Amino acid sequence: MAKIKLTKNELKVQRDALKRFRRYLPTLQLKKQQLQMEVRHMREQIAALHRQLEEQTAAWSSALPLLSGLDGAGLGELLRVQEWRVGQRNVAGTDVPVFVSLTFAEVEYDLFATPPWFDDVLQAAREQIELRLKLRLVEEMLALIEQELRVVSQRVNLFEKVKIPEARENIRKINIYLGDQQTNSVGRSKIAKGKCAQRDANTVL
Questions:
Q1: Is 102 left (phi over 0), alpha (psi -120 to 50) or beta?
Q2: Which of 79, 92, 154, 174 has the fewest beta carbons closer than 10 A?
Q3: In which domain, by residue range, is 47 found?
Q4: In this structure, is residue 151 part of a structural domain?
């Protein structure tokens, strides 16, 4: 703890600082709560996306490998992402990316040259790509929010455990010192008055 001046001016500085810390702390605590809720929500989203991927993989596990037997170049074009749009959302003062839309390249193919199951399996493959991209995006969002939560939590702890107790202790010390000074001043004044009264009495005699 830095050494403080035991003066009335310093007392005002410390009282103003304490008011400021008490005013900011609730805002920081609210932001921390919002970020914690968002972290829980994002973790739930990630878990849900993982479940969707697992369910889809299990449902199409025997069919998806059939795509690999098709022409590689043609398949790559059919699964090519044409547009991957990402927006922004503000979460407790932090901008995070959010999924907007995903568009695959429009490629025409011969319906008679492809097997009957092709459309369904192609759609399943595209859905899996979309799920993986969404999962990656939510994981990025989570990393940003968790980083902001760490910063805010550090500030809350700084205010609660350091700044506010420090200001209170400084105010207490200054008040004690100024009180002692006032008591000593009153004592000295009484002694001086006593000496003056004694001197005046001796003068009269």
A1: beta
A2: 154
A3: 24-161
A4: yes
Given this model, what pLDDT does residue 73 score?
A: 43
What is the number of structural domains in the chain?
Answer: 1
Neighbours of 205 (CB within 10 A): 4
> Which pLDDT does position 72 carry in this prediction?
47
Domain contains 179: no
Number of H helices, E strands in the chain: 4, 2
Joined together, the tokens standing for residue 175 give 């008040």
> Tokens standing for 34?
């919002």
Q: How far is CA 44 from CA 27, 48, 150, 194, in A?
A: 26, 6, 20, 80
How far apart are alpha carbons 16 and 10 in whole angstroms? Answer: 10
Contact 49, 131 (CB under 8 A): yes
Residue 59 has which token pair? Answer: 């449902």
Q: Which residue has the higher pLDDT, 162 or 186?
A: 162
Per-residue pLDDT tens over the stretch 74-86: 567 778 888 889 9
- Does residue 30 form part of some domain? yes
DSSP string computed for 112-154: TTS-TTHHHHHHHHHHHHHHHHHHHHHHHHHHHHHHHHHHHHH
Is 176 part of any domain? no
Per the CB < 8 A criterion, the answer to whether 14 and 166 are in contact is no
Question: Residue 172: what residue type?
Answer: R
